[in-house]
Write a structure and sequence with these properties.
The protein is an alpha/beta fold. Helix content is 44%, strand content 15%. The protein contains 14 helices and twelve strands. The protein has helices at residues 10-17, 21-28, 36-49, 55-62, 76-79, 83-98, 111-122, 140-147, 173-186, 202-214, 230-243, 255-267, 285-288, 302-321, and strands at residues 67-72, 102-107, 128-132, 151-154, 167-171, 192-196, 223-225, 249-252, 277-282, 296-299, 339-341, 344-346. Strands 2-1-3-4-5-11 form a six-stranded parallel sheet, with helices on both faces. Strand 9 (277-282), helix 13 and strand 10 (296-299) form a beta-alpha-beta unit. Helix 6 runs parallel beside helix 14 (302-321) and helix 9 (173-186) runs parallel beside helix 10 (202-214).
Length: 351
């Protein structure tokens, strides 16, 4: 049986570099006060020996875990089936990797999972939390607040208690919806229907509001609630065709919903865009470019949203480590501003 070589120690690095153990510790943990020539010697010794810092010991010195919790308030079946989450996680992961920080993914299937996530966050295992896909009755914001850690939300918060200082990253959902509906009206469409997302999420509410901004006196029968899934789009499209068989356009709250609507229209012999024009929201290329016909949609930069969320959180963590003011709200420690990204209409064949 081959014996495993012992892990290089801090003392071994110090001996190789010809400096004190304290100097090595300061360099490894990002401390100040070490002259550049010594820093280079320590780094060279670390590389030559293959030294890997003990994370537990390092955390005691730096008060940092170099790990961030990403909390998605959806079951895993939804998360792994929807490209939206993959794109947002990619952006988050890229930004965290640049800062040598780890991503800890936490999903919530039910109330028991909320309690588990709350315990984990309160246990001090991570430096902060990125939380998105929240629903209006979700207990997660309160659990995060109790954990008293820096937090950035994905999407505009739709609750009121304890979120006056909430930092979030979102897209201009309402403005993007307005642009989509105006485009349909510009094509001469007058019976424009809308398939919403789940109306306990602010993104869906904002897109419905944008639709209504343009379709001021819309027939309520032209609005059907979906759930951001292809199956929800199919069900809502059938309802709309039964209610209003003369509809000539559909604005769907996301691309997956639009893909389901397109399948129903094709099955019922409606030509797109000749008979019914269709617009989605997201511009997720694996969906928008593979529908038949290709989908006109409102583009939001999902990956960039993830990167911005992570960037804002890491900035908040750094500021907290520098010592927040005593009058700052628990878990904020930064006074950072929220970000709302613009959207763009991408024209393809469906409208």
């Amino acid at each position: 049986m081959t014996e495993t070589a012992p892990r290089p120690t801090l003392e071994a690095v110090a001996a190789r570099a010809g400096v004190s153990r304290a100097t090595v510790s300061r360099v490894v943990n990002g401390g100040d006060g070490v002259r550049e020539p010594l820093v280079e010697r320590v780094r060279r010794a670390v590389e030559e020996l293959g030294y890997v810092p003990n994370q537990a010991a390092r955390s005691l010195v730096t008060k940092r875990h170099d790990a961030v919790a990403v909390v998605i308030a959806e079951p895993e079946t939804r998360v792994f089936a929807d490209p939206f989450f993959a794109l947002q996680l990619r952006g988050i992961s890229k930004e965290l990797t640049l800062h040598d920080s780890q991503l800890v993914l936490l999903l919530t299937e039910g109330r028991a999972d909320h309690a588990r996530v709350g315990r984990y966050l309160a246990g001090g295992h991570v430096d902060g939390a990125l939380v998105f896909s929240l629903h209006l009755d979700d207990p997660l914001p309160e659990l995060v607040q109790r954990a008293r850690m820096p937090t950035v939300f994905g999407g505009r918060p739709g609750w009121s208690d304890g979120t006056r200082n909430a930092v979030y990253v979102d897209s201009d959902n309402r403005g993007g919806a307005r642009e989509a509906v105006r485009h349909l009206m510009g094509l001469g469409r007058r019976r424009v229907a809308h398939i919403t997302g789940p109306l306990d999420q602010t993104s869906a509410v904002d897109r419905l509001d944008g639709f209504r901004d343009v379709m001021v006196d819309v027939d309520p029968r032209l609005i059907a609630e979906g759930d951001f899934t292809p199956g929800g789009g199919e069900r809502a499209m059938r309802v709309l065709l039964e209610r209003c068989p003369d509809l000539d356009a559909v604005f769907a709250a996301n691309d997956l919903t639009a893909s389901g609507a397109l399948r129903v229209l094709r099955a019922q012999g409606r030509r797109v865009p000749d008979d019914v024009a269709v617009i989605g929201f997201d511009d997720m290329l694996p969906v928008a470019e593979q529908t038949d016909p290709s989908l006109t949609t409102v583009r939001q930069d999902i990956e960039e949203m993830g990167r911005l969320m992570a960037r804002l959180l890491l900035r908040a963590v750094d500021r907290r480590g520098a010592g927040p003011d005593e009058d700052e709200a628990p878990g904020v420690g930064d006074r950072l501003s929220s970000v709302v990204l613009p959207t763009t209409l991408v024209r393809r064949d469906s409208a």
